[in-house]
């Protein structure tokens, strides 16, 4: 829609546009107005000034016009100053908020670093490992368990492919050593007798694997000082 009541020849309007046009465009952006919408002063019949949020189509006709302040020139001038100052204060507040968020994040990271160990070291380092019958993958290791503080590490891991079993030893510093035997396959999808016989053929290897897991567990319990402090 067009707005024929606006007088572009009004000297007061020209003065407002010339002095504050750039600041109002910048304020429109800082206040987050949608693209195509902007703050603009206008004047209608009877020298009634207003500060509006407007949008226009490709022909220059207004498609949106909502006034913020209306009255004499000095009244609208106060509104212009208020909006420009509000936009500046809003921008400063946003900047301050981001700085505070960055400071809080840096403080948390510093606190976490202060509570985290300088460098993880297993309590079993330097102790001779027991002899095992089978090759284990990966076997003795130092694998971060994904703890944000970096204090939990797998120190022994083994997977039994035939029977779908995982044996893990997890060391927490400080804290206990956890030993776990978990199934990784709940269903062997046995369809024939031959498949069961194949599993039976591997029971000897399963016994050796379990014997190795027992050897590791006994060694852990023997050399874990935290275990003996509670006896």
Layout of strands and helices, then pairs:
Elements lengths: L10 H20 L7 E7 L3 E9 L5 E10 L1 H43 L23 E6 L7 E9 L4 E8 L4 E7 L9 H9 L1 H21 L1 H4 L3
Antiparallel strand pairs: 1-2, 2-3, 4-5, 5-6, 6-7
Describe it.
The chain is of the alpha+beta class and 231 residues long. Helix content is 42%, strand content 24%. The chain has five helices and seven strands; from the N terminus they run αβββαββββααα. It has helices at 11-30, 73-115, 193-201, 203-223, 225-228; strands spanning 38-44, 48-56, 62-71, 139-144, 152-160, 165-172, 177-183. The strands form two sheets. The chain has a four-stranded antiparallel sheet, with helices on one face. A three-stranded antiparallel sheet has the order 1-2-3. Helix 1 (11-30) packs parallel to helix 2. The radius of gyration is 38 Å and the shape is elongated.
**What form results from the Cα inertia axes?**
elongated
**What count of helical segments does DSSP give?**
5
Unreliable stretches (pLDDT < 50, length at least 5) are 1-6
Order of helices and strands: HEEEHEEEEHHH
Strand order of the largest sheet: 4-5-6-7
- Largest sheet properties: 4 strands, antiparallel
Q: In total, how many beta strands?
A: 7
Percentage of residues in DSSP E strands: 15-25%
- N- and C-termini, Cα separation: 88 Å
What would you report as the Rg, rounded to the nearest angstrom? Answer: 38 Å
Share of helix, binned = 40-55%
Mean pLDDT metric = 83
- Given helix and strand content, the structural type is alpha+beta
